[in-house]
UniProtKB/TrEMBL annotation:
Species of origin: Bosea vestrisii
Family stated for the protein in its record: Belongs to the ABC-2 integral membrane protein family.
Keyword Cell membrane: yes
InterPro entries referenced in this protein's UniProt entry, alphabetically: ABC2_TM, ABC2_TM_bact-type
Keywords from the UniProt entry: Cell inner membrane, Cell membrane, Membrane, Transmembrane, Transmembrane helix, Transport
Pfam families: ABC2_membrane
Record-annotated ABC transmembrane type-2 domain positions: 41-261
Major localisation: membrane
Protein name, as recorded: Transport permease protein
Cellular compartment(s): Cell inner membrane
Transmembrane regions: 40-60, 72-92, 113-141, 147-172, 184-202, 238-258
Superkingdom of origin: Bacteria
């Protein structure tokens, strides 16, 4: 049977997704409330994660490996990168696990299965904003005055879910079918951390490997975010377009993949 907007439980039509926008919002708000409900250290942990990561990587790459980040102090460079990276990291983890987590809902209610996947990409934006505010305060206190483009940074970060979907459209249905993919997602994120210029400048990568790293859908968001905060990118704009193109192609293929697996997904959740 052909998949149409009437029988497509994965996405439906654009109108169907729009009609379910309130569920996307509700799932996002619920996840945020659960994260901070009855917690004392949540905001502290949100701040400490990127801060400590930047401190450790600044020591390892700066003091041990003697990596240079130009005029930008290596700690500031890493702190900016880690903030947007942790948003991407936890958004991908949530989105990849979303179908499994919402299995009771989607097995009982006729709702497009894409909705939980999409909602999973938004809930960690609150964490990002908390860290971003701390970053701005630190830059001002340390004497590193950012340019006016820093006001664009939160809006650039809103594009992160697109990069997340380039991965989660594949990982979410696979995790629903095979529980082992929960661990595979963590493994992928560990590799992506080193394949993404979070703590090192892209232009320090040997030219032979730059085309490969540019295919990473996370690259363009991180580079644009860092440029909006620090006023400079570490790669040629051409690689930004390559990364964005890779993201869009991955999403198109991911949609087809998601639809194909969705036909049998409900029997495994």
């Amino acid at each position: 049977m052909d998949i149409t907007s009437a029988t497509d439980t994965a996405f439906g039509s654009f109108r169907t997704l729009w009609n379910w926008r309130f569920l996307t919002w509700a799932l996002t708000v619920r996840d945020v409330k659960l994260r901070y409900k009855q917690t004392v250290l949540s905001f502290g942990i949100v701040i400490l994660r990127p801060l400590l990561s930047a401190v450790i990587m600044a020591f390892v790459l700066g003091s041990v490996a003697n990596l240079s980040t130009g005029e930008i102090p290596i700690f500031v460079f890493g702190f900016v990168g880690s903030i947007i990276w942790f948003y991407f990291n936890y958004a991908l983890s949530n989105s990849a696990m979303s179908l499994l987590k919402e299995s009771d809902t989607i097995s009982k209610v006729h709702v497009p299965h894409f909705i939980p996947v999409l909602a999973g990409t938004f809930s960690t934006y609150v964490d990002f904003m908390v860290s971003f505010i701390v970053l701005v305060v630190y830059l001002l206190v340390s004497g590193f005055t950012p340019g006016w483009t820093i006001v664009l940074a939160p809006f650039i970060a809103l594009a992160t879910p697109l990069s997340v979907l380039a991965y989660s459209l594949f990982l979410a249905p696979l995790t629903g079918l095979f529980r082992d993919f929960r661990e595979l997602t963590n493994l992928i994120l560990q590799f992506l951390l080193f394949l993404t210029p979070v703590y090192y400048p892209f232009d320090k990568v040997p030219a032979l490997f730059q085309p490969v790293l540019a295919l990473n859908p996370a690259l363009w968001v991180i580079e644009l975010f860092r440029a909006s905060v620090l006023g400079q990118m570490t790669c040629d704009p051409f690689w930004i377009w390559v990364s964005l193109g890779s993201t869009l192609v991955s999403c198109v293929i991911g949609i087809r993949f998601f639809r194909a697996l969705d036909r049998v997904l409900i029997d495994f959740l």
